[in-house]
Amino acid sequence: MQLRDALNDYKHHRHDATAFPGECRSTTGHFSGRDGRLVHVDPDGSLSDYGYPLTGLNGLERSRFGLRVDGDIVWFDHCQTASQEYSDDTGLVVTEHDTHLGTVTQFDLTLGDAHVTHFDCDNLEPASVEVVAFVGFAPDSQDTRIGQLHHDDAIEVFHTDEHDFVGSTTGFSEIQGQVAAKYGEILDDEPVDLPRPISNGRYEEARLSGNLVAFLPVEDGAATVTTLLTDSDEVGRGDALDQLDDLASSYTSAAALEDAAAEQVDVSVPGDHPYAEAMAADIRVLSLLSGRTGLRIAGPDFDPFYAYSGGYGYTWFRDDAEISLFLLESAQEYDLDLDAWHDRSAAAYRDTQRDDGSWPHRVWPHDGSLAPGWANGRLEAGDDVDYQADQTGSVIAFLGAYADATADDGNAPDVTETLETALESLDETLEDDGRPEICQNAWEDMTGRFTHTAATFLEAYATLATTETAGDEVADHATARAHEVYEAMDDLWVPEKGIYALREYTDDEEGAVLDGRCDSATLAVVAAHRTYDRLEPVDDERLDRLVSHVETITEALWREPSEGVKGLIRYEGDGWRKRDQHDEKIWSVSTAWGAHAAASLAALLADHDDDRADQFAALARDLLDLVLPGGPLCMDTGYLPEQVFDDGTPDSATPLGWPHALRLATVALMDEYDILEPRRAVADQ
Predict the structure, then answer these.
(1) Closest Cα partner for 134 from 72, 188, 67, 78?
(2) Distance between terminal CA atoms of the chain?
(3) 3-state DSSP call for residue 617?
(4) pLDDT tops 70 at residue 202
(5) pLDDT above 80: residue 564
(6) What's the pLDDT score for residue 679?
(7) What single string gives the DSSP state of each residue in 289-308?
(8) Shortest CA distance to 50 belongs to which of 29, 66, 65?
(9) C-alpha distances in angstroms, 337 versus 331, 638, 668?
(10) Burial class of residue 439, CB neighbours in 10 A (0-12, 13-18, 19+)
(11) Of 116-120, 142-146, 499-503, which gets the smallest average pLDDT?
């Protein structure tokens, strides 16, 4: 998203109660993409690229599609969208536009760094129409100092390294250049709609802009436009034009795109499973958000100017490693063919580990290099308070489980040294009292000594203690540390509330103080104790505390502000991204975390022959229903947005990878313990 687009959106939404003006929202529409380029298809059929973090290529910033009949243009964003959906379990997006001439069906599929948009115009009256495509590129993330080269059947748009191409299976009957919004348009109170009518006397307009309007002849009732993003250092002009020719000849029909989309689906979920729809959606989303390195963005970056957040198009090692662990567990339960995913993740964590054994705040997923962040205390002078120690714990938990799961696979990345160095880093951030040092929390908005951070340490140490491939010395050391953290968890217990505290912080007058607010991140203690239980049985008093904690946290964080909207908030007193709303917003991550914690507690209690397991199995089902298809937090696309307003409007990163992985892992865990029930009808939820 470029500044001109952000300012234009600001003009559209500055008085909106639930939209943050100036953002590039993805809360409507569908994504297509795999191993790199990530293309958003709006319900009106317009396209935009969100894949820069995954590929280093920026691509499309703006577009519109429509029809030209007898010189008059009708844009699809002025027509009604009859429907938009995925074709089966694939990434092929199918959009139906109702125009005054009849229905146009649009098919969109991303193929590597290419994207194909096919228009079926066979039912139009009159049949003599052209497809009009307005596309605006920002190569190298620039929207000025851009040039165009016009080839026989393709247009090349470039700044320096990035060269983007547009082609058509039926050629172009006409091409018009468009300059970006001008000073007066930027400063005007009203937004500007592009493309504008072509101005007179601007001879350079057709060559010095990333924007162009192309008219595509409709032949045999169809037209197809293709776009290709390239790094000119890696792909030469001739090769790029040849690739466009191949795309033009290969994808001239919807059937060809359907076949290509089906070939992309290399991970199949059990088709007869009652939760297959949710599982397939989770796999699709996590594939969309993944780069070729195996690293994932947290979600599509809707706020690249950091106007309201710190951005989302980066890899956080907390989110990514937990997703990796959830995928590993789910794959083992359902025999999913995710070995290549696990291997890429393990190799990426090995390659991005710092010399001190830790991982930085966040990195660019396309190459693992350091990305902008605010929690790189271990890279800077001064103390390490601005460091998120839980990230290292989360990576260890995955790598330990991965090492054992691939012990007999000679081709799997060797992570032994990575784990040993990470263990040293974890020890450096563990205080003598058995709890992590002062650092930033999982939500990245506080400092202190957090229950969630302690839980990740407990899980990391307990995982290493039971990792057979780690070696006796590592296992013995991790065992001793796991016991220390297990005992130290008592220091975070708030007896008057029956919960583990959000954090311990230092008050200038009172000294160390427990923050007794309820925090959904503290639900991580359950999975951590379940891992510890494999090392040494969790004692009865601790089981009672876990029961009290989950009961109290889920009850305190529950909100049901309006009919059809309900779930868990992030923590008590959360004031982030409320816009005009008074109360805390409901988060899909927190709700899915609640379901997973309840399921984990049910499993732990069942392993101890504790009758209370049934109570938490029921709680897990109730919370899981909220994030399943048909539930109030799951969109019709199958996506889980990070948050929703009280009126049900989705907000922030959409889809967000973390809750999708939580949902998949929760279904797998509940299936393992036979505590799932047949899906209830939406009306009964």
Answers:
(1) 67
(2) 39
(3) helix
(4) no
(5) yes
(6) 60
(7) TB-TTS-B-SS--S-TT-SS
(8) 29
(9) 7, 22, 15
(10) buried
(11) 142-146
